[in-house]
Write a structure and sequence with these properties.
Elements (H helix, E strand, L loop, with lengths): L2 H24 L6 H13 L4 H8 L3 H13 L3 E5 L7 E5 L1 H23 L3 H29 L16
Antiparallel strand pairs: 1-2
């Protein structure tokens, strides 16, 4: 079995299944994953400039701008002046967004807990044992992404991602 290929094939459908189950159970709005990720970033890191939000999410500044445009209309993100630089704008989640995230987290946790409870005991144990491994995998992938994006003032340096010296 090719572990990387199998994991790659399963992650998207699993994520979408959790989203569908969560939205259906709580009657939550059908927000795209990118909007949920931006809300989570703003809720955990506090008000951020659009560029910093983009950097933390690993997306282009224009992506955050497009997300904010749609989310501002839906009363999920507010723009505020930076206290350090009145020309700069910071993004913050609204109370509506924070309520949404709270309901989303509670509902998705409950949906996953119910599905996990239906698994045979040996599969529940295997899943519990895999959680730290998945966390390390996410950290490794994020670390490699930040290495690829690290640029000097003159040029971007491509790190050796092959794992060989």
């Amino acid at each position: 079995m090719d572990t990387a290929a199998e994991l790659s094939r399963l992650l998207g459908p699993l994520r979408r299944s959790v989203l569908r189950a969560t939205r259906g159970a709580e009657g939550l709005p059908d927000l795209p994953e990118a909007q949920i990720e931006l809300l989570r970033t703003l809720a955990t890191a506090g008000p951020l400039g659009p560029g910093e939000a983009a950097r933390r999410m690993g997306v282009a500044n224009s992506t955050v701008s497009n997300l904010v445009r749609a989310m501002g209309t839906a009363d999920l993100v507010r723009r505020e002046r930076s206290p350090e630089d009145f020309r700069a704008v910071r993004l913050a989640p609204t109370e509506t967004a924070l309520d949404f995230l709270d309901r989303y987290d509670r509902t998705s946790t409950a949906a996953l807990a119910e599905a996990i409870a239906r698994l045979p005991p040996d599969e529940r144990e295997a899943l519990a044992a895999a959680i730290p491994v998945l966390a390390h995998l996410a950290e490794d992938l994020d670390g490699r992404r930040s290495q690829v994006l690290r640029c000097s003032a003159r040029r971007c340096e491509q790190p050796n991602l092959s794992g060989r010296s």
